[in-house]
């Protein structure tokens, strides 16, 4: 438990004791009893309550995510120059007080959606592009107080920096940045460039006032209904053109494929014809060589044909009659008596 809370609770309890002793004193006085002891109790309880309240007013505990500015009635400028760091501290009771500021990261959102932004309702930023089109920007910034600049933020802004610094700065920077881009660049080709420019300008603007920009989120860009309809029509036309281009490309590919098939068929037919011709040449050469070999053999053995003829006759033939006026197919060997 925080010790300052404990001291405050004891101080409150001591005042209850004062009330209790006072009531007891009144009761004993009405009953005609002695009130000397209860009056002493009231005095002690009051003294204890004053002491505990003074201690409670002087003890200050700063959380790790906080920094404190000491408002002092005894300092010439009305505050201490040192920022109060995390931990338990002592200030002069009733003459000094502490204003704490969180240095944790915070998010501020401005959105067209009813329940998304810090302000309920349509809180988007209306901006006009370089070509005169109106757009609506949804944005969020993540920021924190610079721990070293908490005192300056307190002096200049106090706790008004959210509504008096961040909100108008973000809206102004976004409007100025959007005015430098054409509408088609805002939602397509140069959107990242727009975001980077806004982020840089926001960082510089917050840094000059003691705040740190952690991130800028360009959540959404909305157009007027008329321009949104024209964008939709343009996208439909582009899709149709892409589809037609795809069909043409497909037809070209099919034609190329057919051409390649025909070329392959032609090449195959040529190769087959060349193969047939080459095989015929080879076959003719082989036949010529075979005939030449036969001629050479016959030239050396003229009776070989008769021998082969007789050899092919049926083995059972013993007598063969031939016409006397027809020549023999093959010459018979002359028989020498």
Describe the structure.
- By secondary structure, the chain is of the alpha+beta class.
- The chain contains eight helices and eight strands.
- The strands form three sheets. Strands 5, 6, 7 and 8 form a four-stranded antiparallel beta sheet that branches. A two-stranded antiparallel sheet has the order 1-3.
- Strand 6 and strand 7 (134-145) form a beta hairpin.
- Helix 1 (3-30) runs antiparallel to helix 2 and helix 4 (161-178) packs antiparallel against helix 6.
- The longest helix is centred in the last third of the chain and has 76 residues, at 225-300.
What would the keywords be for this entry?
337 residues, 17% strand, 4-stranded antiparallel sheet, 8 strands, 8 helices, Tetrahydropterin Synthase, Chain A
Predict the CATH topology of the domain at 106-223.
Answer: Tetrahydropterin Synthase, Chain A
Count every beta strand, where a strand is a DSSP E run of 2 or more residues: 8
CATH top-level class of the domain at 106-223: Alpha Beta
Gyration radius, in Å:
56 Å
Average pLDDT: 83
Helix and strand pattern: HHEEEEEEEHHHHEHH
Largest sheet: 4 strands, antiparallel
Share of residues in helices: 40-55%
Q: What is the CATH H-level superfamily of the domain at 106-223? A: Band 7 domain
